[in-house]
Amino acid sequence: MIIKNLPLKTDPETPITLKKAISANRALAKLNGVAKIIPNSAILINSLVLQEAKDSSEIENIITTHDELFRAGLDVSDITNEAKEVQNYRQALLKGYELVTSNKLLLKKYIIEIQQELEQNDAGVRRQSGTVLKNAATGDVVFTPPQDYETIQELLDNLERYINEENEIDPLINMAIIHYQFESIHPFYDGNGRTGRIINILYLVLKDLLELPILYLSRYIIKNKADYYRLLQEVRTKENWEEWVLYMLDGIEQTSLSTIELIENINLLMQETQAVVKEKLPKLYSKDLIEILFMHPYTKMEFLVNGLGISRQTASKYLKDLQNIGVLESIQIKNSKFFVNTQLFSMLKKGL
Q1: Quick one: fold of 263-350?
Q2: What per-residue confidence (pLDDT) applies to 8?
Q3: The model scores a pTM over 0.85
Q4: Which CATH number is 15-261's, of 2.30.30.520, 3.30.70.1250, 3.30.565.10, 1.10.3290.10?
Q5: Cα(255)–Cα(237) distance, rounded to whole angstroms?
């Protein structure tokens, strides 16, 4: 099958997709507003981007536990290769977020930079033929993406124009079209699926529909993985755009609502923790301290020393006091002691 340039020759905005786009846009707008209840945006970016990184990687069978994932961010030497790959995804997403918010564009060269960060190599766009997409269960070839380097580059140039130029189509429907097109071009040797899911988030940021990169779409895809691949293929073979667009809009709506719930739960837990510390350790309490405890499920002495400008001795006393009142639990990893915000850890582990 030949991949056609965008825009589509058929209208993706049918009565049913437009109706679904209204409710999906409403849920996304609510998420954008609710995110502001956490004053320090780094708390949400750290926790939700890691969750997205974990689940997007899981779609590609890169499996890691929450424990491995959080430890990977602590400079612990014995982390798994899978956890490293998830960390690379996180860094790639944040790199893309910085590029898009700084430049107000999502260019082809940014997409290549994101994939390089993700894969930790500079292989770039495919130059060798032979790439095919197979059915994971049967091994049968289900789709052959463009093989010629020049064709891939031309399609990416077309996609770049479509992403950045204004059109009359609802942005959420456009996101579904862009995702299909990128996955079908399949421009890289590896990391196409994860790069494509990063583009989803960045496109919503580009269109000012999302201020922070916190839309948790990969969990929805994991739960509906068979439909995801089936509908991608049906667009290629039957031009079944309506079902594909509805699938993606439903993903945006469901994950917006579940992310809202998680943010509200994190905010409530922060308030409860603040009240406990204020009551039991009033001399120790500060707004900055509470934020440090929620910046990462694992806290170490250096976080307090750097964040609060206190000595290591004072930081050690603070952590022991917080452990004594049940806010933190200590854990030994190699030669270092860490303090776990167990309720936050459980909340993130449970997911959405």
Answers
A1: Arc Repressor Mutant, subunit A (1.10.10)
A2: 97
A3: yes
A4: 1.10.3290.10
A5: 28
